[in-house]
Specification:
By secondary structure, the protein is of the alpha+beta class. It folds into two domains: about 10-175 and about 320-450, FAD/NAD(P)-binding domain, CATH 3.50.50; about 185-310, no CATH class. The protein contains 13 helices and 22 strands. Helix 1 (about 25-35) links the parallel strand 1 and strand 2 (about 40-45). The protein starts with 11 loop residues before the first strand and ends in a 6-residue tail after the last helix. It binds flavin-adenine dinucleotide (FAD). The site of flavin-adenine dinucleotide has 37 residues, from helix 1, helix 2, strand 3, strand 7 and helix 12.
């Protein structure tokens, strides 16, 4: 391969006690939590908006952790909900929440600036400054060039573990049997839908909530409702088998004529760290969405005036890398409902592996009896192994492929972000290593600030 050397001396443009990379769910919570502990914080984000997958990949609902009583293992989660409700950016339905992807960034940006976090949007992290096993700074690229941001402690909230990998951290990636990552999705919005008429197409399968619709299916055994309609469309050549593997549409706050589509699911281009896969996912994803729109118009009522009102600018990545941390959570820990004194999150969300069948089944949990059917994430899963001052939070924390399939949901990303931010602030203030045993203290701080844990 032909090669060139790229070499450049870069100015230090900023410094802070805690530097958080990635302004998605975990990154916002990490940055705000650290700032509220009284340290200076910088948050960098490569896109021009906060929210990450929640806003730019159009992942509009937050799932429940399925822990009884739905305790919020994050005090900032409560603040976000209060602010989002007041701004009209969220609707509540039982334990699920649906966010407006246009308004949520406004709420997150306000939380970040109110906490005193210095925000760098359009700022892509491209390398690290290292001294031995410590990260001293990050090389960032923005419109003005390449600069260095220095910090005492760093938190990797890039979803893909970019910062950790640049710093030399080990990681795993994909299904251990096949090496393949989970399928990805390019979500899109469809507007101009008459929800009542849509509901009447298949009233048993398409729910209506306050005039908005929800429907979901994976067509394995076509019997009635949407599954039968989709199977008929596949047989007629109007949909592909991939279209039927996972199809789901959600209601959206503020937009009574709009559906947020949690599809198409893409099986051929699944590596969120490969630019060619990301490019192809955009190309085939948009083609699939156009095919699905034509299907809606032909097979459902209420789509006569429907149109695609938005494609996600960010490909929806369920799973890419899992960063090697001091504690790497395993399937056995999850299915045995393991608990930890330094828990930063509790979840009973299923091991949710998408695709055409998989080796994981519920038989793993048979025989285990507990009145507290949830597992916990210990603080050690956020401490990046072999580096002095780096934490990781969000969907790429220290765990195996199977556990990742449960911990990726946003309430859990919030909790790990909050915990990593508090941990980073403690270390920055007390000149500690990330590997010092501060997990129990972090847990207690979360609780003191208002996080709820089942005990
Ligand atoms: C299709 C799909 C459907 C889902 N459905 C649900 C659901 O219904 N409910 C639910 O709760 N969860 C759902 N999830 C899971 C959830 O959305 C994600 O796991 C979660 O949002 C990840 O949060 P995060 O903070 O770890 O990463 P992200 O939100 O992805 O944030 C990472 C941020 O880092 C930035 N970044 C990346 N690299 C760099 C870099 N080098 N420099 C600077 N910035 C960088 C990105 O731009 C992004 O803003 C779904 C996920 C997908 C993909």
């Amino acid at each position: 391969m032909k090669q060139y050397v790229f070499n450049q001396t870069c100015d230090v443009c900023a410094s802070a006690d805690v530097v958080v990379v990635g302004g998605g769910t975990a990154g916002v919570f990490a940055a705000v939590a650290a700032a509220k502990e009284g340290v200076s914080v910088i948050l960098t984000e490569k896109f021009g908006s906060l929210g990450g997958s929640a806003t730019m990949a159009l992942v509009t609902p937050t799932m429940s952790t399925c822990v009884e009583g739905a305790p919020q293992n994050s005090y900032l989660g409560k603040e976000l909900e209060t602010r989002a409700l007041a701004a009209g950016a969220m609707t509540l339905r039982g334990v699920s929440r649906y966010y407006d992807p246009t308004l949520l960034p406004v709420v997150l940006e306000q939380m970040v600036t109110d906490a005193g976090v210095k925000l760098f949007l359009y700022t892509d992290v491209i390398d690290v400054v290292k001294e031995g096993t410590a990260v001293r700074g990050i090389f960032v690229r923005d419109k003005a060039g390449i600069h260095v941001i220095e910090g005492k402690m760093f938190v990797d909230c890039t979803g893909d573990g970019d910062l950790s990998v640049l710093a030399g951290a080990a990681y795993t990636k994909g299904n251990p049997k096949t090496g393949k990552n989970q399928p990805i999705s390019l979500r899109y919005l469809v507007s101009g839908v008459d929800m009542q008429a849509f509901h009447e197409t298949a009233p048993d399968s398409i729910s209506l909530w306050d005039g908005c619709a929800y429907a979901s299916c994976t067509v394995q055994v076509p019997h009635n409702g949407v599954e039968k309609i989709m199977a008929d469309a596949r047989d007629a050549g109007d949909l592909t088998p991939e279209d039927l593997a996972y199809w789901q549409v959600f209601t959206l706050p503020n937009r009574p004529d709009t559906l947020a589509c949690n599809c198409p699911e893409i099986f051929d281009y699944v590596d969120g760290t490969d630019p060619h896969d990301l490019t192809n996912a955009q190309l085939v994803g948009k083609q699939a969405a156009m095919r699905q729109l034509a299907f809606y118009k032909k097979y459902f009522h209420g789509f006569e005036k429907a149109y695609i009102s938005g494609f996600a600018p960010m490909v929806g990545i369920r799973e890419s890398r899992e960063i090697a941390a001091d504690h790497i959570m395993t399937l056995a820990e999850a299915t045995q409902y393991t608990k930890y004194p330094d828990a930063v999150a509790q979840t009973n969300y299923p091991i949710d592996i998408h695709g055409f069948g998989d080796e994981y089944t519920d038989e793993h949990v048979k025989g285990i009896e507990t009145d507290k059917p949830y597992f916990e994430i210990p603080f050690g899963s956020l401490v990046v192994r072999d580096l002095d001052n780096l934490f990781v939070a969000g969907r790429c924390i220290g765990c195996d492929f199977f556990v990742q399939a449960a911990i990726r949901i946003m309430p859990t990303c919030r909790s790990t972000g909050e915990a990593a931010g508090i941990g980073a602030a403690i270390c920055a203030k007390e000149a500690r290593s990330a590997h010092d045993n501060i997990g129990v203290r972090v847990h207690k701080t979360m609780v003191q600030r208002g996080a709820d844990f089942d005990i």
